[in-house]
Design goal:
The structure holds two protein chains of two kinds. Chain A is of the alpha/beta class. Helix content of chain A is about 40%, strand content about 25%. Chain A has a domain of about 190 residues: 3-Layer(aba) Sandwich (Rossmann fold), CATH 3.40.50.300. Chain A has eleven helices and ten strands. Chain B is globular, with a radius of gyration of 21 Å. Classes of the chains: A alpha/beta, B alpha/beta. The interface between A and B is large, with 42 and 45 residues.
């Protein structure tokens, strides 16, 4: 990637203390993320794949500034988010937004959708009349204005995930992090949401980080991917190449796990 | 009565004044394997729960469910309990909520065996250890002494399969058995389930939204939408040459890694709109509002017609998948 990354991890490690084994001695440490480099540029979609426990969630928490790494740098627009002052921090918080797996738990059930959409702006302290912005964002995710006065329970899972994406887009972020955005959705709806994410990258020049366990979803949506296992990035490359010629055993295990209709019908899927 | 492992005829499940399952019929021969596919709200899980006599309170089933010389819908609770776990059993999606958290897993499985076979405590526990070994669990003697929370999701689900198979049932119903598992564990669990079902000659009903899993595991498939079966037939025919526009839409919205273009230009076909809620099902074909081929004719409910494969559609599609309709 010749382009300057917007958001970047350099040599990032995160350790958590484990319970003491004996009365004396140091507490053992768990390395949840071990010396990882990761970056996303404008208009680029990158994938992060791995099994549960691989360190994907810890990595996300550092990319969003929820946790400070034990060592290594988290850079936004080339500057460390933890040492570059309040203005840079606020700009970072506004520019990196997250969409979670289950919109039914990430949207407040007692808040009208219109209210939920304004929430990020309120918490970021962005003043002003946001009606035009709300209308614009709803259009970008393919919902109409009637949605604003309704509550989350009045929507299907796919519509709610669009609303969650709309909420993420409100503060005009430069990077969107989507953590398993379709695994809780019905099959016919997954395609709608993946297509939407893909078009946001092209149309808005958004940087997208897509976290998923399903290599097919990552291959469809992104042009570069990293495979994580045991806290480390074990392999990276274009997802279709990872799929066709996996080098690391962990990548091979993920590739072997991919089921498709044709492979199933050919009777080879479970061999 | 019926020679089938299960023979469901015109099953209707009512929830209040609404019909959540609206006349479903299918049969699985002894040792046969059928996939029941649908999205949330399609009625597939309520169909499975009706078969097990486990519908939530307030829901009632009518029709006929023929199994092992009886109509399950006419059995008393007590007589149903005598069958559940013995002639038919179920594997649930989330093993952690299906297992008793305060009882050792081995004892839970042994209690099923003891109830239905009259085996003694030690004999039953010996069978449990054998079953755990068949499920390729390491150190089976130790693992059966564990509590559910001490085991991984994959281990829990293997033990659930062991429990469901413990009494050699004629029919096993598996409701999304691998959805909660990691992808790499999914394959191993499916393989074990497949081998164990084969060995016992049990019939299998797989309830899932996952079409590749059905393609890998089943001989026939029934696709449900809006409480009815819209297409049913041999899995290879239905998946390679779907007749119902909904079946085709489901297949086209799968991100299939073998069909993705390396330059990122692929677009998945998606089905517009969403699954209608029960109280707002349209008149006639429930898929009509989302269907590109719908006409006035579709305001009348299309019958499920055909030979070995049937589709409920006035304007069936045909031709290989991937071509523009």
């Amino acid at each position: 990637m010749s382009e300057q990354p917007i958001l970047e991890l350099r040599g990032v490690t995160q350790e958590y203390p484990l319970p003491r084994r004996g009365l004396l001695g140091a507490r053992p440490m768990l390395k949840a993320v071990d010396d990882v480099d990761f970056a996303v540029a404008a208009g680029q979609a990158v994938g992060l794949v791995g099994e549960s426990g691989a360190g994907k969630t810890t990595l996300t928490r550092m990319l969003t500034g929820v946790e400070q790494p034990t060592s290594g740098d988290v850079l936004f627009e080339g500057r460390n988010i933890w040492t570059s002052g309040q203005d840079h921090w606020l700009n970072f918080r506004r520019s990196v937004q997250v969409v979670l797996q289950n919109p039914r738990s990430s949207l407040d059930p007692r808040m009208r959708v219109g209210h939920s959409l304004l929430e990020p702006l309120r918490s970021l302290g962005i003043e002003g009349d946001h009606r035009a912005r709300v209308a614009e964002v709803l259009g970008q995710v393919g919902l109409d204005a009637a949605a604003l006065d309704k509550f989350p329970h009045q929507f299907s899972g796919g519509q709610l995930q669009r609303i969650a994406i709309a909420r993420g887009l409100m503060p005009r972020p430069r990077v969107l992090i989507a953590d398993e955005p379709v695994s809780a959705l019905d099959v016919s709806i997954q395609a709608q949401v993946l297509n939407l994410l893909k078009s946001l990258v092209t149309d808005l020049g958004l940087g997208l980080i897509l976290i998923a366990h399903d290599l097919s979803v990552v291959a469809y949506t992104t042009s570069a991917a990293a495979v994580m296992s045991g806290g480390r990035v074990v392999e990276r490359g274009p997802p279709l190449e990872l799929f066709r010629a996996p080098q690391a055993p962990e990548t091979r295990a993920l590739v072997d796990a991919v089921l498709t209709v044709e492979r199933g019908l050919a009777g080879k899927a479970l061999e | 009565m019926s020679e089938q492992a299960i023979d469901v005829r015109d099953l209707v499940v009512r929830a209040g004044g609404l019909r959540a399952v609206r006349g479903v019929s299918f049969a699985i021969p002894p040792g046969g394997r059928m996939g029941l596919v649908g999205e949330s709200g399609s009625g597939k899980t309520l169909t499975a729960l009706s078969l097990m006599g486990l519908l939530p309170a307030g829901l009632g089933a009518t029709g006929r469910i023929l199994h092992d010389g009886a109509d399950l819908l006419t059995l008393s609770d007590r007589r149903f309990s005598n069958r559940r776990g013995r002639t038919l059993s179920m594997i649930f999606q989330d093993p952690l909520s299906a297992l008793n958290p305060v009882q050792r897993v081995g004892e839970q499985i042994a209690s099923v065996i003891r109830r239905h076979t009259g085996a003694g405590r030690q004999a039953a526990m010996a069978q449990v250890v054998d079953l755990a070994a068949q499920m390729k669990l390491p150190r089976p003697e130790e693992i059966v002494r564990a509590y559910p929370h001490q085991l991984s999701g994959g281990q829990q689900q293997r033990l659930m399969i062991a429990m469901a198979l413990s009494c050699y049932p004629q029919l096993i119903i598996a409701d999304e058995p691998t959805t909660a598992l990691d992808v790499t564990v999914q394959r191993e669990v499916l393989r074990l389930l497949s081998a164990a079902v084969d060995e016992r000659g049990s019939a299998l009903l797989m309830i899932t939204h996952d079409l590749p899993v059905v393609a890998a595991m089943c001989e026939t498939v029934a696709v449900m939408y809006g409480g009815t079966i819209v297409e049913i037939g041999p899995v290879a025919e239905v998946f390679r040459d779907p007749r119902h526009p909904y079946t085709r839409g489901l297949l086209d919205s799968q991100p299939d890694i073998d069909r993705i273009a390396p330059d990122g230009s692929s677009r998945l076909e998606s089905i517009p709109g969403m699954v209608p809620p029960l109280h707002a099902l349209p008149k006639g074909c429930a898929f009509r509002p989302r269907c590109a081929f719908a006409t006035e004719l579709c305001e009348r409910m299309p019958p499920l017609e055909g030979g070995a494969r049937k589709a409920a559609c006035w304007h069936p599609v045909s031709g290989p998948r991937g071509a523009a309709p």
